[in-house]
Amino acid sequence: MEFWTAFYAISFYLAILIFIGGLAYKIYQYAKTPAPLVIPTMPAPRTSSGVVIRVLSEVILFRSLFRSNLWIWLFGIMFHVALLLVLLRHLRYFTEPVWGLIVLVQPFGKYGGLIMILALFGLLARRMFVERIRYISNPSDYLMLVLLLVIGISGASMTFVTHTDIVQLKAFMLSVIYFDFFNWQSIPSDKMLLVHLAAVILLMIIFPFSKLLHAPGVFFSPTRNQVDNSREKRHVAPWALELEKTGN
Amino acid sequence: MAKAKFETPALRPYPVIPILKPDAMKGDGPFLAKPAMQESLGYPGELVDNWKEVAIAKMGDLLKKYRSLRVYLDSCVKCGACTDKCHYLIGTQDPKNMPVARQDLLRQVYRRYFTLAGKLFPKLVGAKDLTKEVLDDWYNYYHQCSQCRRCSVFCPYGIDTAEISMAAREILDSVGKGQKYCNEIIEKVYKIGNNLGLPEPALKNTLEGLEEDIKDDTDIDVRLPLDEEGAEVLLVTPSADFFAEPHIDGLIGYAKVFHQAGISWTLSSYASEAANFGMFIGSYENMRRVSLRIREAAIKLKVKRIIFGECGHAWRVAYSFLNTLAGPFDFLDQRYPIPQHICEFTNDLIKKGKIKLDKSANDHRRVTFHDSCNVARGAGMGNIPGGQFIIPREVIKACCNHFYDMPADTIHDKTYCCAGGGGLLTDDLMEVRVKGALPRMEALKHVVDNNGVTHMAAICAICKTQFSKVLPYYGFEMDQIISVHQLVSEAIILTPNES
Ligand code: HEM
Ligand code: SF4
Ligand code: SF4
Fold first, then answer.
1. Residues of B whose CB is below 8 A from A232
2. What is the ipTM of this complex?
3. Which numbered atom of ligand 2 lies nearest the CA of B85?
4. Which one-letter DSSP state was computed for residue A186?
5. Which among A68, A236, A244, B29 could bridge B81 via Cys, Cβ 3.0 to 4.6 Å?
């Protein structure tokens, strides 16, 4: 297992680097690009606290999606809430001692995995069988769901069917986290686990290059995060200021 | 005019999601702008030889200038929530009129030239080279978008296809493939002062004629002043108000309101246009140039307030952009909103009892209200969110006894565009206009059948022109569309000026 231990450990470092670096770059790019005109979809809040509520209602409740299509909303919210629970539950593999909150969500996270799989199948079915959604789908849109299903199913099968050596896995993860270079604890040789981790690594790598950018994007969407105050306040972008200086 | 050769969609008893008909609206798009027009707006006269490089460079430039474009091209997850929300999809069934598919026309090129995934694996992520075919698709389908932003209401990330359309049109302009209708109109504003190319003497004549008409009608001297220095208010209104039906009855309504309120006002021959087609072509520079005319007129005429007449996209530019583009307006009276909408103005006077209305004057009408897309989703009124829905309705209800709203999913921020907005109000796009009006016509039919509605009131010059044209295609009369201030005009109780 020496080879696989090193392979997974190094892949993890690379994936984390790409994931964090890529995401940070994208967020920097979004933040830096000016928003020259005020374009909130009206009616919009007239205060910043109103805007915070508006954005949170999109992030937590998927409010616009709810107004738009109940089926997509249902599968969408099921998937994301389940994903969140599962992610929280996973923290127990990385923390020692396990945080109290994580111990609390632990039992829910277990079933979260199943709900996530169910929701992903729902989303996949929509994509395949609804004519309009099939039309707008590229191979990557299907593959993204397949990848998440691989993660979900391999993970759930370890929870409910063939248990892997959790103690050994945790030792491996902690040695990776604490940078025990080439002194890593060995990774359990369970095939399911190797598939699961490989898929997660792949997901982290493609995250900043794919539509998963919707996660930071939702916070930067001018139609959602701008205050309706344009009659009271000017919003001249730096490049537009140049126009004013040159007198046209 | 002979009706163009296409089939008007049938009104459906209840709305269902349409089946797709690929390429149903494929075509060459609207007429191209002539070289001289292009050049007066600062664009190449015709398609440049290296259009591909220019287009991609322009896209790169816009990506740096507009956060909306950058975030929206990245963020779409192809969830499909927007796919059945566009009136053009509903009316034409062409899949490229689904908002996300319309965005994808630009997004496929963005991915190919600006993203790693698209550079390495174009097939996988649906990235495409910019070919002549793609360019033609842009021209055709970005001129089947009225930039109404209905899709942005329903998208979980608020992705606004109007922003994408505007960017696409700006790219098209910058390679020399501009649209005749929009660019011709902007050129006229620069040369003459308004979209219609109505010069000052003609305008003066028209206004005098209207004063006489009002006198004949009411026996009262109501003025429509032009270029009067020192007036309290500068009224900026779409030039269609000067001569088209039913717009002109709205203009008469504004005049009567000013008269009765005893507030001096003036029109400007230099800024005799509220419309700003610079927005439709996505050009900040042109939008700003048109806006500055209003600022200049206000300074020259030494007014204290600016009020806008009934025009949808003009109100979006006025409410959301004017202060940014042409401000600061520190020389105006800060006690009033800058600028103010005529409905805000009238509603205020009604609330304060400064004008009196006789509702029974409109008893022969049963009225509904069409929320114009740019007012509903692009602007506001009053100082509470949603004022743009409340205030016009309050004005209408103060003027007539019978008011009925259309079904809830077709009004307020879910309103359907008239299908003539965004620079599509031209005869060479008649098929798109008629088909895109389907959902609004169905909603109208609903209140006609259930509430006996006889008239639909609107506060947008484009909506009014568009509906007068398309209502007959669906079995209605062209004069069933009216101005909100026409209702005011008929209900207002006039008294002679004290002085
Ligand atoms: C701020 C956090 C996030 C928000 C607000 C958010 C919101 C949404 C919404 C509203 C949708 C559309 C509905 C749907 O198709 O399910 C969506 C789709 C999707 N989200 Fe997220 N998301 C977030 C984070 C993530 C993360 C971290 C992932 C990581 C895997 C993810 C994966 C996906 C996928 C794969 C889809 C597409 C589903 C499909 O193909 O139909 N999301 N997201
Ligand atoms: S902005 Fe309006 S016309 Fe354009 S795609 Fe969206 S819904 Fe359709
Ligand atoms: S609703 Fe938004 S995210 Fe969903 S397909 Fe349409 S544009 Fe993309």
1. 323
2. 0.95
3. 7
4. P
5. A68
Atom of ligand 3 nearest to the CA of B78: 5
* Ligand 1 touching residue A216 (CB < 6 A): no
Query: How do residues B122-150 score in pLDDT, each as one tens digit?
Result: 999 999 999 999 999 999 999 999 999 99
Q: Convert the pLDDT of each residue in B381-411 to its tens digit.
A: 998 899 999 999 999 999 999 999 999 999 9
Handedness of CA B188, B189, B194, B200 (dihedral sign): negative
pLDDT at B4: 54
**B2-7 own/partner pairs: CB under 8 Å, 24+ apart:** B3/B473, B4/B427, B4/B430, B4/B431, B6/B430, B6/B431, B6/B434, B6/B435
Q: Which of B125, B153, B178 is the last residue of a domain?
A: B178
Domain check: are B161 and B253 in the same one?
no
Number of H helices, E strands in chain B: 23, 7
B413 contacts on A by Cβ (under 8 Å): 41-43
CA-nearest residue for atom 22, ligand 1, is: A215
Do residue B274 and residue B155 come from a single domain?
no
Q: Which among A45, A137, A210 has the least Cβ separation from residue B117? A: A210
Task: Please report, rounded to a whole number, the percentage of residues in chain B having pLDDT higher than 90.
Answer: 93
Q: At the top level of CATH, which class does the domain A2-28+42-246 belong to?
A: mainly alpha
Same domain, B430 and B479: yes
